[in-house]
Amino acid sequence: MKINQISPDDNEFTSILTSVNPKPRALYYIGTLPSIRQPTIAIVGTRKPTRYGEEVTHKFAYELAKRGVIVVSGLALGVDGIAHRATLEAGGTTLAVLANGLSKITPHTHRQLGLDILASGGAILSEYEPDIPPLAHRFLERNRIVSGLADAVLITEAAARSGTLSTATHALTQGKDVFVVPGNITSPLSAGCNQLIRQGATPVTQVEDILEVIMPANLENQLKMPLGDTPAQSRIIELLQSGLRDGEELQQASELDAGTFSSELTMLEISGTVRALGANQWTLR
User: Fold this and answer.
1) Could you tell me the residue ranges of all domains in the chain?
2) Are the C-beta atoms of residues 88 and 117 closer than 8 Å to each other?
3) 27-31 and 4-6 beta bridge pairing
4) CATH class of 4-220
5) Whose CA is closest to 20, among 143, 135, 123?
6) CATH number of 231-284
7) What is the pLDDT of residues 195-218, one digit of tens each?
């Protein structure tokens, strides 16, 4: 894989890094960088998300990517990887910023994910020369690049003492909006998110909360809710929008017989309108 080197000023998309302190002297990248600025969100969070964290990360990354937002993250385990993968599933563009040189894609368990990012037209980038190893302090240094490339940062799940919070700090220093998904007040992995909200970060519960800030001109078109191909599919979508997730409860509330419900739900899954969460739980994409 060819490793390219540019100055941040050489590319319209990366020129936003002039807001980063210290500004990277060079950028190394594999793949394809966007040539122009497009609405961009950094999605970050814990390396060990709960089921809730996994679900909301996938939901926000997928829906933002579907609406044309570029997703930036750090290719780490947990939230980062989920955000990258969901973006690819949505057919979107995602960029991964590493804390080491690009002679190796790290972590090793995400090497295939990195290759998939490149194959989809995205890029893996770093400020470090190709053979620089991923030492601990470089992850914190890397976070300023993750936030710097984006128009805003979304934190989906994070503990009170999390490296993720350094990304939020960098974003605020750079004048970027920080969005946070509220979490269960009894969950240690939501303590960092809830703390950020107390300190003034913007709580978000739906993708439109973010779109109205980073791409308000296009929001009216983005607000159109999915419609089914049949009245039965539309009814299932309405029930999912109301908050129902359990398959049995959905079938009963839809007043469809079990065979029709199963068939219509399968068609919605094939079309990409709904997604299975496992254990007969369902959600809209």
Assistant:
1) 4-220, 231-284
2) yes
3) antiparallel
4) alpha beta
5) 143
6) 1.10.10.10
7) 999 999 999 999 999 999 998 876
